[in-house]
């Protein structure tokens, strides 16, 4: 049994199974941990609309709950409604720079998340973008650069979406150049994500831990993908899912079951609840 106060849990490939559902075993064990006073925090690349229904399913009932969204770009408090506590955003010049890189790559789209809005810098919404927006329970809106320039809401993060082979070529060509200006991660074969420089899930987790006066050694993190690496390294105790990438498994303290075998429930029950 490990002594922790906060459990940070990734969603896709971790909390959610392959059908994008939360296994009942995960819900039951998470609720049990919450009853014992452990703070449960979803730490995900998803935007707010893609988290709300799942958070409701978890049934967490503390007076104040928290969620780290958009790969650490936004920290939200949840107390009946959702409120933005702190955030890091991309400015217009940054978005314009990212968009200009697409010259010669018409099959790749640049999408942006802004609060509850899923935006794509294009004349129309492609099938791939529409699909990705559906995964976070919203519809993508096609916008132009001028719409972004005069937007009232902050742009949290950007995502390049495209078929994996073309995105491979794009990433290989520009990743080094982007690294000097932004934080980047290839979270899925069809998604190459861009955040403000220095911002990852780990920075969001550190901000929340500081607010709650929780030490790094009192944090357990569970994840599966490359955008979880920094979060796992920032936690005192890290767990990789059985379906995690080799890099994630190598970085974690321990490996649990897969997301289709309720690996989150297994990890919390064994290492936190001592069951």
UniProtKB/TrEMBL annotation:
<dbReference type="InterPro" id="IPR000150">
    <property type="entry name" value="Cof"/>
</dbReference>
<dbReference type="GO" id="GO:0000287">
    <property type="term" value="F:magnesium ion binding"/>
</dbReference>
<protein>
    <recommendedName>
        <fullName>Hydrolase</fullName>
    </recommendedName>
</protein>
<dbReference type="GO" id="GO:0005829">
    <property type="term" value="C:cytosol"/>
</dbReference>
<dbReference type="InterPro" id="IPR023214">
    <property type="entry name" value="HAD_sf"/>
</dbReference>
<dbReference type="GO" id="GO:0016791">
    <property type="term" value="F:phosphatase activity"/>
</dbReference>
<dbReference type="InterPro" id="IPR036412">
    <property type="entry name" value="HAD-like_sf"/>
</dbReference>
<dbReference type="InterPro" id="IPR006379">
    <property type="entry name" value="HAD-SF_hydro_IIB"/>
</dbReference>
<dbReference type="Pfam" id="PF08282">
    <property type="entry name" value="Hydrolase_3"/>
</dbReference>
């Amino acid at each position: 049994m490990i002594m922790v106060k906060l459990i940070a849990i990734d969603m896709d490939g971790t909390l959610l199974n392959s059908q994008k559902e939360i296994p009942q075993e995960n819900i039951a064990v998470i609720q049990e941990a919450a009853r014992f006073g452990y703070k449960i925090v979803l730490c995900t690349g998803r935007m707010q609309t893609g988290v709300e229904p799942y958070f409701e399913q978890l049934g967490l009932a503390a007076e104040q709950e928290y969620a780290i969204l958009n790969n650490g770009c936004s920290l939200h408090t949840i107390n009946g409604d959702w409120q933005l506590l702190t955030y890091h955003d991309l400015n217009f010049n940054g978005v314009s720079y990212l968009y200009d890189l697409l010259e010669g790559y018409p099959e790749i789209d640049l999408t942006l998340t802004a609060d509850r809005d899923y935006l794509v810098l294009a004349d129309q919404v492609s099938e791939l973008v529409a699909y990705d927006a559906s995964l976070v329970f919203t519809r993508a809106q096609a916008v132009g650069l001028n719409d972004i320039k005069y937007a009232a809401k902050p742009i949290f993060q950007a995502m390049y979406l495209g078929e994996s082979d073309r995105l491979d070529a794009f990433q290989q060509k520009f990743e080094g150049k982007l690294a000097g200006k932004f934080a980047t991660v290839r979270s899925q074969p069809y998604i190459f994500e861009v955040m403000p420089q220095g911002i990852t899930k780990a920075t969001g987790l550190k901000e929340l831990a500081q607010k709650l006066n929780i030490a790094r050694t009192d944090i357990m993190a569970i994840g599966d993908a490359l955008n979880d690496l920094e979060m796992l390294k920032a936690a005192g105790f890290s767990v990789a899912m059985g379906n995690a990438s080799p890099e994630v498994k190598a970085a974690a303290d321990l490996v649990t079951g897969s997301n289709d075998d309720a690996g989150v429930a297994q990890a919390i029950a064994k290492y936190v609840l001592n069951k």
